Amino acid sequence: MGRLVVVSNRVPVPKRGEAPAAGGLAVALKDAFSGRGGLWFGWSGTASEEPADLVRHARRGGVDYAVIDLSRRAYDGFYAGYANSALWPMFHFRLGLLSYDRDQAECYRIVNRRYADKLMPLLRPDDTIWVHDYQMIPLGAELRARGSKHRIGYFHHIPFPPWAVFSAMPGAEDLIRDLLSYDLVGVQTNRDLTGLIDSMAQGTGMKVRPGGEVRFRDRRTRLRSFPIAIATQEFADLAAESVKTPKVQRFQESLAGRSLVIGAERLDYTKGLPERLRAFGALLEGFPEHRNRVTYLQIAARSREDVESYKDLKREIETLAGRINGDYSEADWTPVRYVGRAQPRDLLAGYYRMAQVGLVTPLRDGMNLVAKEYVAAQDPEDPGVLVLSRFAGAAESMPEALLVNPLDAVGTAEAMNTALVMPLQERRERHAAMFRRLGENSVQDWAKDFLNVLEGKDPAEAPPARA
Ligand code: G6P
């Protein structure tokens, strides 16, 4: 078996002598790398003033890491520009926020070309290549243009809209056609798969065969959904340990017996944070019995601060949180506690376990792992309740959550109230059903399933044609 080569925009290179990152792709790929060796390639996370062309290598735990810096220009055009000001809003159905600039679109192509130039000499003939996410869509086509005959798969971590939305992007036809260079294109949910098939059929004019397959020249591209999972038991154990630590205990004491409602994510307009704050305001307005009885902790990790729409969002959230606190605070109670920085994973796990209500209300989200982690973190004897947007991919497999439309502030407030007063027996039943389902799929299974289909090892699938 050849090596696994992973390409993603961010590459979590472990520090020397340290374990790999505890969350995200690193966990998912650990098993996939082991036994076959591998290479992980992408951006170093650094934007340098110098034109940066050097590939830096590191070897950790049997995996080779190869990263390159972006020049400041490339960072502005590729990362802050096209990827996060045009592709990101389009894929999240936010056409009003889509800001297209032809130079930035060109910069995106140039960076993908450069990645292909740098990656190509590092490849061996029997490698399998797995490309991740929207920052890298053209990479497959660029590798093919340089003669790559490898099996190449692409996984799209964020939502995939139908053509009616996708086609708003200038150059949409090129972008969707780029996906035909892959042997397998994976998305998170059935809803995304419907979007992908619709965009593929309409955007390329090609027939998508039943089962999700497009034939173009001598390649067939399979279209499939692979819902991403978490390491459920590990997270449950982490949470159970974390609540005992002095830091989390101190936080518990600071609540003085009040219920806790929690939200935690990157500060991103797709996460529905202003809508959620308004819903919390509506809870205090419409259900006065919760005043001075409930505290809402919102953790919003700063993100993409060079992009204008993220700056606007930050101001809006600060204003809203301030207004609610101004309207409802008592000398001994602050309704909204707002933490504008990322928090360590173990602390988060403890906070989730303490919270009677988990608020996960994105306007659109590929999957949303906070929803899954919140459920995993609960004490099964006395679990909290998940209030979940039906627009999160996670909603497809978590029907026992209280599903809401986050644009409906009063409806979301009503769900929060239902969660806060839900009887123990019902909480246990809902939690047990979701926890059981989470345990059926590990994050390692997710990677294995994708690679099995890509490499023709899934018994349900015939082997893919080699180009
Ligand atoms: C989402 C995307 C990832 C991205 C991450 C963090 O999860 O799907 O591709 O890496 O957000 O965003 P950032 O812009 O900081 O990489």
Automatic annotation (TrEMBL):
Record-linked Pfam families: Glyco_transf_20
InterPro entries listed in its UniProt record: Glyco_trans_20
SUPFAM superfamilies to which the protein is assigned, alphabetical: UDP-Glycosyltransferase/glycogen phosphorylase
PANTHER family hit by this protein: BCDNA.GH08860, TREHALOSE-6-PHOSPHATE SYNTHASE
Family: Belongs to the glycosyltransferase 20 family.
Name by which UniProt lists this protein: Trehalose-6-phosphate synthase
Source organism per UniProt: Pararoseomonas baculiformis
Species lineage: Bacteria, Pseudomonadati, Pseudomonadota, Alphaproteobacteria, Acetobacterales
